[in-house]
Amino acid sequence: MEVLGGCYEQILFGFSIQPAENWEVAPDFTHHAHSASLSAVAVNERYVVTGSKDETIQIYDMKKKVEHGALVHHNGTVTCLEFYGNGHLLSGAEDGLICIWNTKKWECLKSIKAHKGHVTSLSIHPSGKLALSVGTDGTLRTWNLVEGRSAFIKNIKQNAHLVKWSPSGEIYVVAIANKIDIYDLETASISGTIATEKRISSIKFITDSILAIAGDEEFIRLFDCKSQKCLCEFKAHENRIKALYNFKMEGLHILVTASSDGYIKAWNLDIDKIENAPSLLCEVNTKARLTCLAVWLKKDFETEQIPNEATPSSSHVHEAEQLSLKKKKTCWTDSNKPSEGDGQKATLKRKSGNMQKKKKLQRLK
């Protein structure tokens, strides 16, 4: 597995971790990825993509360890990136656009003017048929990805900065400053609220009912989404925590954390004894101001991320649209359909005109 960390210093770090060898960490590569600080990173089975304040999305082929090119479409900081499987990528930016990308040919299938302000966060439903987005226009928006159009707009009257589906897709959470509203998919209404003292910086579902929350402080808290009670609190870093990432591997629930103190750490969560602080598996000091985090998982061992078999059935989607979604396969809109964006042509900008001369990622010394 490869732990990836982006930072203010415009660098993407890669660290190889060997779970079978006592979680030994080895520096793998360091890459001057952008001309401005990194703001987002996402992974699928083959690629890593990074977004930046330089308005570009850089692509890396992790199997070949080479740069693959850059996507140049957004006019503003790329704020969020999320893959769905190995075929699609969604990107959101401060220009208010959400772009749907085909990751086979790296073509922009659809460019949607999603928010009047910035797009601050997006999340794809496990079925791949819906997505949620929040922005600085005070709205929470639901998107029909089958049709490539808006399905529902909710005025939450505040600027949310994070949104996330649960693994089953039955609930979703929206973070506004230092609170998290928990929404039920069936009713599209708030079923509970979690409040913290500090502004929330990252959220991850450990299970369908356990939510990990990090903020502008050194602590991580695990909450029960049903009761909104704090199940566990532990000090993870010496400075504010910037990003969380989690996955299951060979029966273990792994939580990876990144902080402004420069450290990336991996923790083992015991779900049966969730009230106990997790055990530290490994850590590495990047000596950089980290901003974003992801883990690229090789298929050498059993891993599990977010399941993709849920079916949306929300009042966010009208009854006729629910029928449409049930009938159709998860086949996202293609480039033959008109764009709702500003008409820009997206380009895949190669680092080298010769495909045989792709620049390899520089190994750390």
What distinguishing features does this structure have?
365 residues, Hemopexin, Lipocalin, 5-stranded antiparallel sheet, 30 strands
Structure description:
- Among the domains are: 114-195, Hemopexin, CATH 2.110.10; 198-300, Lipocalin (Beta Barrel), CATH 2.40.128.630.
- A hairpin with a 3-residue loop joins strand 1 (2-7) and strand 2 (11-18).
- Helix content is 2%, strand content 52%.
- A 5-stranded antiparallel beta sheet has the order 4-5-6-7-30, with no helix packed on it.
- It has one helix at 319-327, and strands spanning 2-7, 11-18, 24-32, 38-43, 47-52, 57-61, 66-72, 78-84, 88-93, 97-102, 107-113, 119-124, 130-135, 139-144, 149-155, 162-165, 171-176, 179-184, 189-195, 200-205, 210-215, 219-224, 230-235, 241-249, 252-259, 263-269, 279-285, 290-296, 303-304, 347-349.
- The protein has 365 residues and is mostly beta strands.
- It has 1 helix and 30 strands.
- Keywords: Kinase, Nucleus, Repeat, Ribosome biogenesis, Signal transduction inhibitor, Transferase, WD repeat.
- Pfam families: WD40.
- This is P21-activated protein kinase-interacting protein 1.
- Residues 347-365 have a biased composition (Basic residues).
- WD repeats lie at residues 31-63, 71-111, 112-153.
